[in-house]
From TrEMBL:
Native species: Mesotoga infera
Pfam families: YjgF_endoribonc
InterPro entries assigned: Endoribo_LPSP/chorism_mut-like (IPR013813), RutC-like_sf (IPR035959)
Protein name: Putative translation initiation inhibitor, yjgF family
Domain Endoribonuclease L-PSP/chorismate mutase-like span(s) in chain numbering: 5-139
CDD domains to which the protein is assigned, alphabetical: YjgF_YER057c_UK114_like_1
Coiled-coil segments on the chain, per record: none
Amino acid sequence: MFIEKRIKELGIELPPSSPPGAMYVPVKRLGRALFVSGQVPMKDGRPIYTGKVGSERSIEYAQEAARLCVINMLAAVREYLGDLDRVANIVKLQTFVNSETGFTNQHIVANAASQLLHDIFGESGRHARTAIGTNQLPMDFTVEIEAIIEIRESGE
């Protein structure tokens, strides 16, 4: 349980995975790829980070939201796989940032998520990435993150 140990060393506690709030599944497998549905900054079933980045919310606020999205993503993957050590690579991250008109630092918000994945998985946490500004996210969340993750088969 190397990855679980690393997460604890970083002072992170993964929550139980949240059930989907609509007609989707949190994780869908295709071969060795996991497609992780968009994860939002919720904790204990409550929205934690809401609002648009720009004058309403700071970049630092949005970065915290992005980190919580990654934590929730890892909780969903752990529930699906049973063991995060089966993660071989974080392949792609797509970050959506609820942005006011004129805000152009979505990539800086996404850096917080990318850095956390690198801190946890090392070089296997480096990934391709897209950072997108949008005028609205569901429930006014500040950030939403989805991912594609390569996994190992059990026993590899």
